[in-house]
Amino acid sequence: MASNTGIAADLPSGARICTTIPDILYLPELVFGGLVWILVACTLVVPPNPLGWVMFVSIFCFVMTFIWTVVFACGSHHSKASWATADFLYHGIAAFFYLSASVALTIVTLDLKKKEGETKNYKFDVSAVVFSYVATLLYFFHTILSAMRWKSF
Fold first, then answer.
1. Residue 113: φ, ψ to 5°
2. What integer pLDDT is reported at residue 93 of this predicted model?
3. What is the CA radius of gyration of the chain?
């Protein structure tokens, strides 16, 4: 029996997005991106600039990944090569955004560690840092696998 988890030259639709690589990564991207969004929103947003960027990245990537998942699930891409290219580009941009947001969040969290009485916010920020790096890795792996699929078109 042939396995359907390989990288194919067509774009999956419907329930196949839950069984094909790299599309199986949509759900973990949504979960970890949502966790970053929630954890940063639960903390005191000081300083606002770096944490504003983290919030923008987590919300933007969450919404776009959800839209991307719906487009793929509905089959609106019609298995065109241009969608494979767009998939590769989107996930590459998302990986870069998440990496920059993760570094900014790490710096803010390290600065927060130095302040007394901020243990609750510090713990939330540490969790957000871990989840943001996990989301970065998921988007990075999705980019690599999407590039491989794009080259097979």
1. -60, -30
2. 96
3. 17
CB 54 within 8 A of CB 36: yes
Angle at 142 between CA 89 and CA 19, to 5 degrees: 125
Could you count the other beta carbons within 10 Å of the beta carbon of residue 32? 24
Q: What is the dihedral of CA 54, 35, 124, 107, to 10 degrees?
A: -30
CA atoms within 13 A on the CB side of 122: 10
CA 14/CA 140 separation, integer angstroms: 24
Q: Hey, what are 9's tokens?
A: 């030259």
List pLDDT tens digits, range 36-48: 988 888 877 666 6
Instruction: For residue 46, give the DSSP letter.
Output: -
Q: Of 22, 23, 58, which is closest to residue 132 (Cα–Cα)?
A: 58
User: What DSSP string runs through 78-124?
Assistant: TT-HHHHHHHHHHHHHHHHHHHHHHHHHHHHHHHHHTSTT-HHHHHH
Q: What is the mean pLDDT of residues 129-136?
A: 95
- Rounded Cα distance between 111 and 9, Å, is 47
